[in-house]
Amino acid sequence: MMDRKVEYPTIAQGSxxxxxxxxxxxxxxxxxxxxxxxxxxxxIAIVGLAVxxxxxxxxxxxxxxMAWTSxxxxxxxxxxxxxxxxxxxxxTRFGSFDLEVKMAFLLFPVMFWLLPKKNRFxxxxxxxxxxxxxAASVLVCVLAAGWRFGHEWYLxxxxxxxEDPAWTNHxxxxxxxLFLHPSYMAMYLCFAxxxxxxxxxxxxxxxxxxxxxxxxxxxxxxxxxxxxxWLTLAVVIGLAMVAEWKDVRSRKRLIxxxxxxxxxxxxxxxxxxxxxxxxxxxxxATGPIDPTSDQSSALRRMVWxxxxxxxxxxxxxxxxxGDIKDELIASYHAQGYVHAEAKQMNxxxxxxxTLAALGVLGLLSxxxxxxVPLYQAVRIRDPHAMVFWLIIxxxxxxxxxxxxxxxxxxxxFFTWVLxxxxx
Length: 423
Description:
The structure is a single chain. This protein is an all-alpha fold. It has two domains: 68-104 and 291-423, no CATH class; 128-284. The protein contains 18 helices and no strands. The chain has helices at 15-32, 40-57, 72-84, 92-101, 104-114, 124-157, 173-176, 182-198, 207-224, 227-244, 248-271, 273-284, 296-313, 324-335, 338-342, 350-379, 383-395, 405-422. The radius of gyration is 23 Å and the shape is globular. The protein starts with 14 loop residues before the first helix and ends with a helix.
């Protein structure tokens, strides 16, 4: 009997293998966003490789058009304007760093254009991977905070540590959020909650698992102690109630989530000054600016004031891509904003950050990138896309999220998933 050589199929033997690689790499990238930011460049490279290979194997296939109703062309324009802004930049080193941080705003539109139109991307695995990973990140953070809390409680009981009124803060803000800044984590969790509500977890997942996962996401948002996170959570649940009120199961689930969120919030508000102080600071920050204050709400007013002054001084061009940080810090120093200067804060509003850096044209490109796809999502009645863009519009108003990779990659990658899965 003659030996026969068995040939196993490889990725390189056909486009089907590259499709699978594209789907699986995208799923891993979505799962890595809440957990493993250092792995993202490698996963993006794999996604890019799969897209390039699909285009190479189907070079004569139909190309995807850059519809102006999509965020893709506006996102690329936003990046190009930052590159142009280097022309009147003095600090080219920071400008180059800024372009590197924002590179995904150009890279994902290019990958969208390269992906053959017949190779429609299936986004469901990516959405669900993100939802599961987001919930898992909350669980890890809760367990880690509980362990630290218990360990410190034991040491205090033994008299080995001095009294500290803030020692319960293990469960809040940056001590709780192990993998991301708490504002970004809250944004991620809100979108994960919307994803579970609109996309689901699959037919094989038991109902109680879905309820538990949603409850865990709500708990995570509350513990991030982000005012915008709380507002975004209320908006996400409120919109879902309006859209799915006639569905009895969805209505019960949303009422349950509202009860969990409100109950936990009021308990923490009454028991912990860390939570109640957030609202107290926001209310007290409505008066005259105290330049020596180090409270988050007051600091935001200071940096907004400084960014507005920079825009008014150069409304047409802004101060330039690379000079925005130096100019903001110089403004803080001139106005005596000591803590804003010491922390080298950005404008803490992407709209003001872009206005100060690139002027009116930069802001218009940013608004087009956000509002055009939001309008399109409303027009075609896509609730998942609508919530995604609404979450970004809200959160970018109080954070300069296009200045850090946690905000850039979240926006650019999921914009690509939405667009590639639809067209």
